[in-house]
Predict the 3D structure of the following.
Amino acid sequence: MSIKESPEQTAPPGEAGTVAVRFKRRRRRFDYLPYLLLLPTTLFLAVFFAYPMIQSLVTAMQDSQGGFTFDNFNTMFKDVNFSDALRNTILFIVLMVPLQVVLALIMALVINTGLKGVGFFLYIWTVPLAISDLAAGIVWLAIFTERGYINSLLTQLGLIKLPISFLSYENPTWLFTAVIMAELWRATSIVMVILVAGLQVIPKAYSEAAEIFGASPWQRLRYVILPMLKPSLQVALILRTILAFQTFAVVIALAGRALPVLAGEAYNWYNGYRNVGVAAAYALLILVLSIVNTAVYLRLLQTKTAQMA
């Protein structure tokens, strides 16, 4: 058998250096390939994300004559709804995100069992992904309104004589609960899809080995599955928290102005008061809070790869 010789071996001694230089040049040409593949995504992010963020920053720090000012931020902080909007937004995140992660994890574990019929549950649970925020708010408005499904059912069962005002500003607890339930129904499936994808790449051999050594289902979940699912949990938490800061359409559909949130105040100042500067200040505040939360998640849920780097 003859061994295939490289171009450097077959070339005459005088041409070996020239051939080597040619191969180095070809390799340099291929070095641009990864950057070319990333170019469309980079342009998309630059045009639709980076540029609006920079424009929002500039707008928030400009007065009507184009000069530098902090008046927009002062107006935002002195806004009568600012403290309530900030408090409600943080409460939404503190209550909603952990509930969604727990529910999504349970749903993902059920789907990952591979039992017969889990495909049907996957289909049902992912239906809200095809529904917009406003449409989801209108669906739950039909459930909680005075002539909605809940009041109609309770009246037919004889449990109440007069309809309950779930969405009244005089009943803030139920108003808040209605928004939480609507968001749980609408956005939990996003987290579930991410966790299902993470569970699919975990080798089953680890759980089987732990079961052989006598680990209970809870121990397998705590010491085997959750540590290996940490990258997916990190992505799910970051994405869901960022989207939670932008909660707006569901709140408007169910509560209107009775339950102010940061994104809603940004909309009101832009569309209602026609003050672009203060609206940009609210948007910039949401951006800063999102970045801070992302940094916290990246710090608390560090993977081994990130720690080694």
Notes: The chain has one domain: 72-304. The first helix runs from residue 7 to 10. Residues 265 and 282 are 7 Å apart (CA to CA).
